[in-house]
Amino acid sequence: MNKQIFGLIGQKFIKNLHVLKALLFFCNLAAITIYILVRSLFHDYNIQMGEEASIFSKTILIGSILGSSLFAIYFLTEIAEVLLSNKASFVLPGKILAGAVVVFLFISLASCSSQVSAGIKKDLTTGLTAKYNNVEPEKVMLVMNGEVLDHTDIPLGESFILVNDNVKGLKEKDGKVNVGCSLVIKDKNGKELLNEPDLLTGDAGLFNKDITYLKCTVNTGAPMQWEETYAVNVTFWDKNGNGKIENNVNIRAIDMP
């Protein structure tokens, strides 16, 4: 009878392979559609080919794992139907069911472990973006004179603050997190006006583990010129881990109002 049950389960699996194929197709289609929509929203964000390929492959992986997980749940019900329809001993079939549960749990855990926190956030009012990996901000903003900006016109000589708010994912060590911050400013021709590899050297990058935001103060002034546009790049990275947030925004230097 046990061989018969094995045979029935095998037949069920072969019979339902089309369900697995359909789930993989539609889950990957949904994942790719979401990927295309996100990329179209951030079409002006420059991503290197290698990084683009990596993000796309992770998208496919997540879609495939989701489809496989849904099929595992569905097939467990098929196994249960086979077991319940047979009056023979449930000892060995019980082991089969336990094995199926283990496989399902393995797929679920693999799905969780593969979900790396990575993506892009954008402030639609200023165009400020945050490309993040393993360290994720809830929102990004520009602040000047204590007010959140809805524009990128900065009076020459003024300072503004680039903020990543409600940041999660920084690795703690001895009750502290350790963060680096680089700042690069370029003119419209791509010429570097400023390049600071790390503004938070030594203990300057040590913060309490409960810190919820990362910010960088950006000063304007010579050799900047009025009515010129400048590209500002600020990158924060986790010195205790491999997380990173890369911020980009274009500002326009204006005369003091």
UniProtKB/TrEMBL annotation:
This protein's UniProt keywords: Membrane, Transmembrane, Transmembrane helix
TM stretches of this protein: 20-38, 59-76, 96-112
Highest taxon above the source species: Bacteria
Descriptive protein name: Uncharacterized protein
